[in-house]
C-alpha cells in the first residue's frame, strides 16, 4: 500500500487507499434524512489500469435509489425512440379509467 486513509466521525466515514500497482479507491458515507427516515448514502470511486492499458475510472453512489455506477467504459442503453417517448408521455397524461365491474 502506498497510501491508506480512514476517518470516522459520528455517523459519517471516509476511507481511501492507493496501491503500488495503480489501484486507487475512495469512499465516503453519511446518513441522509427523508422525512422521518434515515437513509444511508455512500459515494465513491475507484480507478485502475485495464490489462490493455486503458485507464478505468468508476464513480458510484449507493442510496435509496440503489447502487448506480458511472464510467466511460460502461455500456449505455440506446436512446428511446421518439414515437415511444410520445406514447409514454400520452399514457402518463391520460391514465386509464377503471370501468365498473360487469356481470355476465
From TrEMBL:
<dbReference type="GO" id="GO:0062129">
    <property type="term" value="C:chitin-based extracellular matrix"/>
</dbReference>
<dbReference type="Pfam" id="PF00379">
    <property type="entry name" value="Chitin_bind_4"/>
</dbReference>
<dbReference type="GO" id="GO:0008010">
    <property type="term" value="F:structural constituent of chitin-based larval cuticle"/>
</dbReference>
<keyword id="KW-0193">Cuticle</keyword>
<dbReference type="InterPro" id="IPR050468">
    <property type="entry name" value="Cuticle_Struct_Prot"/>
</dbReference>
<dbReference type="InterPro" id="IPR031311">
    <property type="entry name" value="CHIT_BIND_RR_consensus"/>
</dbReference>
<dbReference type="InterPro" id="IPR000618">
    <property type="entry name" value="Insect_cuticle"/>
</dbReference>
<protein>
    <submittedName>
        <fullName>Endocuticle structural glycoprotein SgAbd-1</fullName>
    </submittedName>
</protein>
Amino acid at each position: 500500500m502506498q497510501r491508506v486513509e480512514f476517518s470516522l466521525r459520528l455517523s459519517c466515514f471516509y476511507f481511501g487507499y492507493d496501491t503500488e500497482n495503480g489501484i486507487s479507491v475512495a469512499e465516503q458515507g453519511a446518513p441522509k434524512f427523508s422525512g422521518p427516515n434515515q437513509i444511508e448514502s455512500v459515494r465513491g470511486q475507484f480507478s485502475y489500469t485495464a490489462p490493455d492499458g486503458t485507464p478505468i475510472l468508476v464513480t458510484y453512489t449507493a442510496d435509496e435509489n440503489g447502487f448506480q455506477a458511472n464510467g466511460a467504459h460502461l455500456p449505455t442503453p440506446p436512446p428511446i425512440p421518439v414515437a415511444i417517448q410520445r406514447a409514454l408521455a400520452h399514457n402518463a397524461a391520460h391514465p386509464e379509467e377503471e370501468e365498473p365491474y360487469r356481470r355476465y
